[in-house]
Amino acid sequence: MISTILPTYARADLEFVKGQGAWLTEADGSHFLDLASGIAVNSLGHAHPDLVKIIKSQAEKLWHVSNLYKIPQQRALADVLVANSFADTVFFTNSGTESCELAVKMSRKYWFEKGYPGKSEIITFEGSFHGRSSAGIAATASEKMTKGFGPLLPGFININWSDHEAIKSSISDKTAAILIEPIQGEGGIRLLPEQCLKGIREICDEKDILLILDEVQCGVGRTGKLFAHEWAEIEPDIMMVAKGIGGGFPLGAVLAKENAASGMTAGTHGSTYGGNPLGCSIGLKVMDIISDPNFLYDVNRKAKLFHDGLLELLRKNTSIFEEVRGKGLMLGLKCKVKNTDVVNAAYSNKLLTVPAGDNVVRLLPPLTISDKDINEALNKLDGVMTALSQ
Ligand SMILES: *Cc1c(COP(=O)(O)O)cnc(C)c1O
User: Fold this and answer.
1) Residue 187 CB less than 6 A away from ligand 1
2) Cα of 78 to ligand 1 centre, how many Å?
3) Which 3 state secondary structure label does DSSP give 21?
4) What is the pLDDT of residue 162?
């Protein structure tokens, strides 16, 4: 008989009842060090006192009113995002998938309104992940994601990861946009070199097409900059955000330049929940904390500590891992053994990690993780390597 929960997930046999900082507690009282952060969502760890305070106080006032009315918390969060990014305007969603939907719609509407309704194709990349909606899976184009769900939404051209020649040869007078993650998350912490992102920006300028960045996983401080594309010193036209911005509350956003957003006039898009007072007051607090240069400085300092420690582990034992990948606290270990064996061995050592494509194990600690907990994580990973070497 089918389970009462639709059986689409392969879950670990773990049930957590409480979280504090970078630690989760199981019902039996055992503690797990959390390098999963709910897949890069709990950016400030569990039960961050400032977030607990804001969610309590806002919950007592107002949760939801709909976008029929003005929402001051939404405006405040939009103002902060605009002040801290390339963007001129923001739309709020509840997830990365919804952000993908709008990014796709916005880029097509842009060209439609400019008088080029045929410019609707979007170039995407092998190994990418943009969500599970019809647009999201068409963009991703992997067999795993799309098989049996056809007919797929047309208008996506999927090419090899960061292949500049393929990008150039795929561009035609039908191309509306290029959609890319500065660092592929699900794809295996595959980092797009800064030079490469610069090159893609140049191609977009030259050929007059929009650049959409998916920063759902790598954005909001994860890489040590507020947004990952800042490392390459370029600006997108449209950017998708979600995961870390809500600190655990479902919140997403699409940020855009005024010109790129020009097709999206009143009535062209909407969301019932998106940008509600509760979500936005939490997002505002998350942004307050993470956009502070001192906070980001500390993320980079801790990232170096962690990265160096991982390299040391790899030197010590060459049989389990072959490479440390990533930027900031978005780290990956390319495995020589099966990545899921590593994740399972980590569970046995009371450590949470996340498998990804390309046989990689992702390490996505809360950005607030302490130096002590980073050392503890390294010890636990050392234990994992020893266990798997036997
Ligand atoms: C998680 C993710 C998404 C989808 O976000 P949901 O909130 O699960 O809908 C899209 N893009 C990237 C890069 C992601 O990591």
Assistant:
1) no
2) 20
3) strand
4) 83
How far apart CA 282 and CA 280 sit, in angstroms, is 5
Q: Identify the pLDDT of residue 59.
A: 98
CA distances from 109 to 119, 157, 333 (A): 9, 18, 40
pLDDT tens for each residue of 278-287? 999 999 999 9
Distance 252 CA to ligand 1 centre (A): 10
Give residue-wise pLDDT tens across range 212-257.
999 999 999 999 999 999 999 999 999 999 999 999 999 999 999 9
**Which tens digit of pLDDT belongs to each residue from 13-40?**
999 999 999 999 999 999 999 999 999 9
Integer Cα distance of 89 and 68 in angstroms: 19
Class of domain 51-290: alpha beta
Nearest ligand 1 atom to the CA of 131 is 4
- pLDDT for 141 beyond 90: no
Could you give the CA distance from residue 272 to residue 293 in angstroms, rounded to a whole number? Answer: 34
Q: CATH number for the 16-48+293-389 domain, one of 3.30.540.10, 1.25.40.80, 3.30.390.80, 3.90.1150.10?
A: 3.90.1150.10
HSE-CB for 307 with a 13 A CA cutoff: 16
Q: Read off the tokens for 254.
A: 């699409």
Q: How many Å lie between the centroid of ligand 1 and the Cα of residue 131? A: 5
For the Cβ of 131 lying below 6 angstroms from any atom of ligand 1, the answer is: yes
Q: Which of 213, 243, 254 to mutate to test the pocket of ligand 1 (most atoms within 8 A of CB)?
A: 243
Name the CA radius of gyration of the chain, rounded.
Answer: 21
**Cα of 21 vs its chain's centroid, Å:** 20
